[in-house]
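Page 47, continued from p. 46.
Same chain as before, 184 aa.
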Amino acid sequence: MQGKRILLGITGGIAAYKIPILVRLLKKQGAEVRCVLSPSAQDFVSPLVLATLSEQAVHIEFWNKQTGVWTNHVELGLWADVMLIAPATANTISKMANGACDNLLLATYLSLKCPCILAPAMDLDMYQHPSFKRNLATLEADKMHVIPATFGALASGLEGQGRMEEPEAIVAYLQAFFNSSAPL
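Result:
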């Protein structure tokens, strides 16, 4: 993973608590990490923590309202070797499958020239819902790579499939991805 450029898209789900650990593990492997958050992701993970761990500015809005500086989503997409969206909520997956573009993370996704990997996270009923499955199938048909959610205890108190994969397993997936014949 030495020198690999990973653009980490973080959406507003409780599984975002795992993301600082993921950033740390990726950096330890020698990867460069930049973070793009959906606006609701800030409710679950601190941009300050992510900026500190990634050693890069965190991007949330199209432009900084204090300075007027624009965030170039096209440049973010061109910079990356891969975009990983984790956690990928049902809301964001639905927007991606339908080409919606109402935040910086989605604009960056739609501008990508590199592969994109999803790590879904949601409650078990949402994960099994026909509309979610249809949206995920649409993205897979568009050559999206998916790290399936795992079975376990969920934030709702229920147990079932819907947990975002653990950071160590996501790093292993990325290592295998970069070592495979997948075109970059």
